[in-house]
Amino acid sequence: MAAVCGTAKCVFGLLLIIAASTTAQSNKTLLRLQFGPQDTTIIVGQAKNVTLRLHGPLSETVTVNFTQTNATNDNAYVQVTPSTIAFTPPSSNFIDRSERVSLRGLRAGIFDLLAHLSPSSALVDQSQAFVRVTVAKSWSLISVSSVIGWTYFLAWTWSFWPQIWENRTRASVVGLSFDYLALNLLGHTMYAAFNCALFWNGSVQAEYLRRNPRGLIPVLANDVAFSLHAVFATGLIIVQCFFYERGQQKVSYTARAIMTVFALVVMISGVLVATGTYLWLDFFYNLSYIKLAVTLVKYVPQAVLNYRRKSTIGWSIGNVLLDFTGGSFSMLQMLVNGYNYDDWDSIFGDGAKFGLGLFSVLFDVLFIVQHYILYRNSNYIELRGENYPGPGSVTTAPRQNIST
Fold this sequence. Notes:
Layout: H1 2-28, E1 31-36, E2 39-43, E3 47-57, E4 62-68, E5 78-81, E6 84-87, E7 94-105, E8 109-118, E9 124-128, E10 130-136, H2 139-158, H3 161-170, H4 178-200, H5 202-211, H6 221-243, H7 253-274, H8 280-297, H9 299-309, H10 317-340, H11 345-349, H12 352-374, H13 376-383
Parallel strand pairs: 1-9, 2-10
Antiparallel strand pairs: 1-3, 3-7, 4-6, 4-8, 5-7, 8-10
Helix pairs in contact: 2-10, 3-6, 4-5, 4-6, 4-8, 7-8, 9-12, 10-12
Subcellular location: Lysosome membrane
Organism: Anopheles arabiensis
GO cellular component, one term: lysosomal membrane
């Protein structure tokens, strides 16, 4: 038995040595052409340097030249210096050489600078032979865009808390649509799952980069933080509904039917993943589409409830104002970036984000009109206690039974 174990150990060790040797050999036989960094920002009229590295076996002199995607010879985004680079093999026929490439901004835009090796070889790895270049008109506009971005991020993040405070001070959720809450929780949960998967899951990220070989992961840390906070805050409001006065309100059958359809989409997507028809990236994309669909319908129940009651009491205007600020600044940032980078396709070519921001702003305008104009007198009467359904009312008038 000891002899058998010893033999097994020897065989296993030999296999490890062979594997390591094979890996080292394959690494040495592959010529790599790569840029660093692979993402840079330049201002029109200014220059910035990137590094081009050639690493691996080289037996003949080669030349590297450059092309710019979405550009013509007479309308380039940057001036590249030098325009070509020659690499001569050393006596060992193994090269590890880096060259500095200067990029001077000529016009605003976003493009990929690609490096090409000539003569080309089947053993050349050019998967990193590109740099994503953003040419901006002004650093000031970049700073303005950053300030606007943080403003809408904070406004949207804090937009949940006025409603939470309103519920607490009134000890009542009468006037707050349960359909809106249910749909909102579903949408934010789907969005959080999508963001977490693309931000943390390595296999999902690898699939995204395989489909977008020169792309960047679209989800940032602030996206994850916002979506997780949104799930928490919405869940907290729902918990308040179990403890505070709520009248006879409940989630309507229409909202339940909509959520059932979305649940079926999730279940079918899961089955497709299990059968190998879908990849996980497709599954999480479907979750993001559910979020988009929810955003398009979630405001309707609250607007209808306000109309039926001829009052906005119970629906925090602070929520509306912060949401309006967030949506407005989100669209403003897109417009600033579109001008600064001359990249209007990011808005009108794929207008989902811009459209959703516009849709939420339009509903917020409706809520503001309802609160300050249409139902102002009704709100004043309720706040005086003459028709106020919460605790501490100064009248014995019967409470309203509200159902969506």
